[in-house]
Design brief:
This protein is of the alpha+beta class and 182 residues long. The protein has one domain: Enolpyruvate transferase domain (UDP-n-acetylglucosamine1-carboxyvinyl-transferase, Chain, Alpha-beta prism), CATH 3.65.10. Helices cover 29% and strands 27% of the residues. Strands 1-2-3 form a 3-stranded antiparallel β-sheet, with no helix packed on it. A 3-stranded antiparallel β-sheet has the order 4-6-5, with helices on one face. A 3-stranded parallel β-sheet has the order 7-8-11. The longest helix is centred in the N-terminal third of the chain and has 13 residues.
Length: 182
């Protein structure tokens, strides 16, 4: 039997290696947990509609949260990352209409949450995602926003193509590309 600190290495009767781990008496060191994806999405979007500059530390570095920051940037917010891994977002009282469709990548969280923010803006906006996101159901979201905002969703072949209100219903007019209803 060979000992390595809290580990003992040995083999059984058949020659298989066994590792026995004994509890440590104490642990010394520092641990930094990665940023939480769910919280990072929400903080990034709230910072976009807040007045002034918001500084976010421990922001998730995942692709989904990067999609959220890219959408926020397209909506006219200045997004910066400084040398200490702090994200700074200059919020806007009113977001600006994006020059192009908002690419949500593979992030259902980005698409669903930013839709609620966009519903209150006075411009039209198109949202899309990658092939995987485009297969995910968005019908419940369209129906809920339609109900809450008194807008009328348009459907084509069980696919949410657009939510377009008439003038009497308000400013919401944006669409989901190829998002299946379920």
């Amino acid at each position: 039997m060979q000992g390595l600190g809290n580990l003992d290495l040995t083999s059984d009767l058949h020659g298989a290696m066994l590792v026995i781990v004994r509890p440590a008496k104490n642990i010394l060191g520092a641990l930094r947990l990665p940023g939480d994806k769910s919280i990072s999405h929400r903080y990034g979007m709230l910072a976009a509609i807040a007045q002034g500059t918001t500084r976010l530390s421990n922001f998730s570095t995942g692709a989904d949260c990067a999609s959220t920051l890219a959408c926020v940037r397209q909506l006219g917010c200045d997004v910066r990352k400084n040398s200490k891994d702090i994200i700074e977002i200059d919020g806007r009282e009113s977001l600006q209409a994006p020059a192009e469709s908002l690419d949500c990548g593979n992030s259902g969280s980005t698409m669903r949450m930013i839709s609620g923010i966009l519903a209150g803006q006075d411009f039209s906006c198109d949202l899309y995602g990658d092939e995987s996101l485009s297969r995910r159901p968005m019908g419940r979201l369209c129906c809920l926003l339609g109900y809450l905002l008194t807008v009328k969703p348009r459907w084509k072949n069980r696919t949410a193509r657009a939510i377009t209100p008439s003038r009497r219903y308000g400013p919401l007019a944006w669409s989901f590309r190829a998002a299946a209803i379920a």
